[in-house]
C-alpha cells in the first residue's frame, strides 16, 4: 500500500509537491557534525502542531479517521502520518481536510497570535488610555456586555456536555419544574430530516448533520423566549453554532466522570463516536479533552459524578435560579 496522500476520484496532479505525492518528509537541513539546524527543529514543531490541530479537530467532531478519510479523500494512512507530525501535507491536502471539517484552512495552522484585528485594536486603545481610567472602562464594558447578553438570552437554558452526563434527564425535570417547554435538539433534527440521527449521518455525513443542527437551533431560539434545550455533545464542533448557543441561551455544562459517561452511553445503546473502535475509553477521553475548553465557556457547570439524580437536580435548580428568578431548590427529600 502506498503512503501517497490520495484524493478519491481526484486527479493525480492535484498534489504538486513531490514530497507530498510520495508521502516522504523533506530532508532536514543538517549542520556540519550531523546536528539538525534550528530551522529543521522549528519545522518539526510546526508539523507536530498541524497534526495536533487535525487530531483535535477530528476528536471534537467525534469523527473516526475513516470518516475523515471518506470526507476529505485523503487516505487513512496518510492522515495518521499527518496527525503524528510526519506527513508534510501540502496546502491542497490541508484544504481537503478543512473542507471535511467545514472550517477555514487557517484553522488548521498553528497561531502565533490568537487575537483578531478587532481585539488588537481594542487592546491598542486601552494601552493609550490613562491608567486612572482603566477601572471605570472595565466596569462600563462589563455592564454593557451583561446587558446585551441578558437581553439576548432571555430565559432560555441550554445544557451542554458529552452524552451520558444526564442532560436529557435533568433537562426534562427542569422544564417541568419551571413550566416551560423541553427541547432535545436531536429530536428536532430528526423531525426535520425525517430519519434518525444515526441514519442522517450514515446517509448524508456529519457535516450535513451539523447544518441541520444549526438551522434547528435557530428555529428553537426564534420560537421560544423560555425553553430548556438539551444539545448534542458535539455541538461545539461548529464554532458558529456554539457561539449562537452561548449568545442566545444560559448554558450549563453537565459533567460526569469518564467511567460514568461510558457506562451511561453503553446503557443507552448509543455508541456512535466509538463505533468500530476497540479503544473506546481512550477515544472518549480524547473527545472530552478536545472539547473541554469549549464546554468550559458555558455560563456554569454541574458535576454529576457520584451524585443521585435528585441531588444533581437540586444543584441545577440553584444554578438557574438567577436566570429565572426562581426560588432555590428545596432540600433533598422535602416535597415542593
Level-2 CATH architecture of the largest domain: 3-Layer(aba) Sandwich
Radius of gyration: 23 Å
The tally of beta strands, per DSSP, is 7
Number of domains: 2
CATH class value of the largest domain: Alpha Beta
Specify the structural class.
alpha/beta
Q: Helical proportion?
A: 55-70%
* Topology order in helix (H) and strand (E) letters: HEEHHHHHHEHEHHHEHEHHEH
State the fourth-level CATH superfamily of the largest domain: P-loop containing nucleotide triphosphate hydrolases
Contiguous helical run count: 15
- The CATH topology of the largest domain turns out to be Rossmann fold
The shape is globular
Straight-line distance between termini: 66 Å
Low-pLDDT stretches are 1-36, 326-336
Residue fraction in strands: 5-15%
Please describe the biggest sheet, giving its number of strands, its sense, and whether it closes into a barrel: 5 strands, parallel
Strand order of the largest sheet: 4-5-3-6-7
Average pLDDT figure: 80
Amino acid at each position: 500500500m502506498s503512503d501517497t496522500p490520495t484524493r478519491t476520484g481526484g486527479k493525480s496532479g492535484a498534489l504538486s509537491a513531490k514530497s507530498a505525492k510520495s508521502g516522504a518528509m523533506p530532508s532536514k537541513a543538517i549542520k556540519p557534525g550531523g546536528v539538525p539546524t534550528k530551522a529543521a527543529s522549528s519545522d518539526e514543531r510546526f508539523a507536530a502542531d498541524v497534526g495536533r490541530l487535525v487530531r483535535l479537530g477530528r476528536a471534537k467532531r467525534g469523527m473516526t479517521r475513516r470518516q475523515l478519510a471518506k470526507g476529505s479523500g485523503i487516505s487513512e494512512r496518510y492522515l495518521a502520518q499527518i496527525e503524528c507530525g510526519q506527513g508534510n501535507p501540502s496546502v491542497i491536502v490541508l484544504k481537503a481536510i478543512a473542507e471535511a471539517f467545514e472550517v477555514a484552512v487557517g484553522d488548521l495552522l498553528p497561531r502565533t497570535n490568537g487575537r483578531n484585528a478587532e481585539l488588537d485594536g481594542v487592546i491598542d486603545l486601552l494601552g493609550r488610555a490613562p491608567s486612572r481610567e482603566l477601572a471605570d472602562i472595565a466596569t462600563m464594558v462589563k455592564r454593557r456586555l451583561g446587558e446585551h447578553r441578558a437581553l439576548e438570552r432571555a430565559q432560555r437554558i441550554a445544557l451542554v456536555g458529552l452524552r451520558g452526563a444526564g442532560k436529557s434527564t435533568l433537562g426534562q425535570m427542569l422544564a417541568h419544574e419551571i413550566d416551560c417547554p423541553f427541547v432535545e435538539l436531536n429530536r428536532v433534527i430528526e423531525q426535520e430530516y425525517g430519519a434518525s440521527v444515526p441514519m442522517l449521518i450514515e446517509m448524508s455525513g456529519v457535516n450535513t448533520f451539523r447544518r441541520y443542527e444549526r438551522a434547528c437551533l435557530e428555529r428553537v431560539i426564534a420560537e421560544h423566549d423560555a425553553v430548556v434545550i438539551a444539545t448534542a455533545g458535539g455541538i461545539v464542533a461548529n464554532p458558529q453554532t456554539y457561539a449562537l448557543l452561548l449568545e442566545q441561551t444560559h448554558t450549563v455544562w453537565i459533567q460526569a466522570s469518564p467511567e460514568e459517561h461510558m457506562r451511561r452511553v453503553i446503557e443507552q445503546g448509543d455508541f456512535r463516536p466509538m463505533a468500530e473502535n476497540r479503544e473506546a475509553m481512550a477515544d472518549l477521553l480524547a473527545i472530552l479533552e478536545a472539547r473541554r475548553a469549549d464546554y468550559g465557556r458555558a455560563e456554569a457547570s454541574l458535576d454529576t459524578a457520584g451524585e443521585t439524580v435528585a441531588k444533581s437536580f437540586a444543584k441545577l435548580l440553584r444554578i438557574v435560579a438567577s436566570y429565572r428568578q426562581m426560588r432555590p431548590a428545596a432540600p433533598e427529600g422535602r416535597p415542593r
